[in-house]
């Protein structure tokens, strides 16, 4: 092999090693992001719609932790404070829409569960808020 051919072979080997290292780094970053808190995300509660409706509670989270919960009937503003695997949900103003009694009760039950949340974990597109009762939210594909 001539000098220039050997030089080209070394350059190619170096380039391939750099590409492989970059791909590994990108994969590690993607895995880390996959397990991080889903700021700037829209998530849907893992639940079946109530009879007579297609509505399921939705959680929208902004990059600064500001959030909004679209409950079974009403909406409630919130601020999420996340540190490591702990989370504090500070609920704010709530709409006062009147709905069927079962929807109003479901709103009250969900608000009570949110106030008990103390930890979170993430598994792919699933965010689990853990408290007295676990609440499972799936990241929306939209």
Order of H and E elements: HEEEEEHEEE
Alpha plus pi helix count: 2
Report the structural category. Answer: alpha+beta
β-sheet strand percentage: 25-35%
Give the tally of structural domains: 2
Q: Which spans of ≥5 residues are poorly predicted at pLDDT below 50?
A: 12-33
Task: Name the helicity range.
Answer: 25-40%
Topology:
Blueprint: H1 3-35, E1 41-45, E2 58-61, E3 66-70, E4 75-83, E5 86-94, H2 101-115, E6 119-123, E7 126-130, E8 135-139
Antiparallel strand pairs: 1-2, 1-8, 2-3, 3-4, 4-5, 6-7, 7-8
Report on the architecture of this protein.
With 142 residues, the protein is α+β, with helices and mostly antiparallel strands. It has two domains: 35 residues; 102 residues, Lipocalin. 34% of the residues lie in helices and 33% in strands. The chain contains two helices and eight strands; from the N terminus they run H-E-E-E-E-E-H-E-E-E. Strands 5-4-3-2-1-8-7-6 form an eight-stranded antiparallel sheet, with helices on one face. A hairpin with a 4-residue loop joins strand 7 and strand 8. The longest helix has 33 residues. The radius of gyration is 23 Å and the shape is globular. The chain starts with a helix and ends with a strand. About 15% of the residues have low confidence.
Can you tag this structure with a few keywords?
142 residues; alpha+beta; Lipocalin; 2 domains; eight-stranded antiparallel sheet
Brief sketch in words of this structure:
With 142 residues, the chain is of the alpha+beta class.
């Amino acid at each position: 092999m001539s000098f220039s051919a050997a030089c080209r072979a070394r350059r190619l080997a170096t380039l391939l090693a750099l590409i492989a290292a970059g791909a590994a780094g990108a994969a590690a970053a993607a895995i880390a992001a996959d397990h991080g808190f889903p700021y700037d995300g829209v998530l849907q509660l893992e639940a079946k719609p109530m009879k007579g409706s297609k509505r399921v509670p939705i959680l929208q989270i902004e990059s600064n932790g500001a959030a909004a919960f679209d409950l079974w009937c009403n909406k409630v503003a919130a601020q999420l404070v996340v540190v490591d695997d702990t989370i504090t949900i500070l609920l704010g103003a709530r709409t006062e829409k009147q709905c069927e009694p079962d929807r109003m009760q479901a709103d009250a039950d969900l608000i009570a569960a949110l106030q008990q949340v103390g930890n979170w974990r993430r598994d792919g597109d699933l965010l689990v808020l853990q408290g007295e009762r676990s609440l499972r939210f799936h990241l929306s594909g939209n």
